[in-house]
Amino acid sequence: MSASSLNSPEVLQLIEQEKQRAMVNEMVAKLTNTCWDKCVTSTPGSKFSSSESSCIASCAQRYLDTSMLIMKRFQNMQQ
C-alpha cells in the first residue's frame, strides 16, 4: 500500500470511524465499571434488585449527560 493511498478520503474516514468506535467502547467500559461499583452492593443473582436497577439507570443517565456536557464545552472552546 502506497503512502498516497493511506491518505485517501476512504482510509481517513475509516480511521475516524475506528477512533470513534474506540471512544464509545472506552466510555461504555468506564460507565459499566463506575455504575457497577456504585450500585451493585451484593453478590448479584439472576436479576438486579429494584434499587440496583434504579441506581444503574440513574447512574448511566448522569454519566452520559455529564459526558455530553463535557464534549459540548470542548467543542465550544475549539470554535
From TrEMBL:
It is a peripheral membrane protein. Keywords: Chaperone, Disulfide bond, Membrane, Mitochondrion, Mitochondrion inner membrane, Protein transport, Translocation, Transport. One of its GO terms (biological process) is protein transport. SUPFAM superfamilies: Tim10-like (SSF144122). It is found in: Mitochondrion inner membrane. Residues 13-76 form the Tim10-like domain. InterPro entries: Tim10-like, Tim10-like_dom_sf. One of its GO terms (cellular component) is mitochondrial inner membrane. Its main location: mitochondrion. It comes from the Eukaryota. Heterohexamer. Belongs to the small Tim family. Mitochondrial intermembrane chaperone that participates in the import and insertion of some multi-pass transmembrane proteins into the mitochondrial inner membrane. Also required for the transfer of beta-barrel precursors from the TOM complex to the sorting and assembly machinery (SAM complex) of the outer membrane. Acts as a chaperone-like protein that protects the hydrophobic precursors from aggregation and guide them through the mitochondrial intermembrane space. The twin CX3C motif contains 4 conserved Cys residues that form 2 disulfide bonds in the mitochondrial intermembrane space. This is Mitochondrial import inner membrane translocase subunit. It comes from Papaver somniferum (Opium poppy).
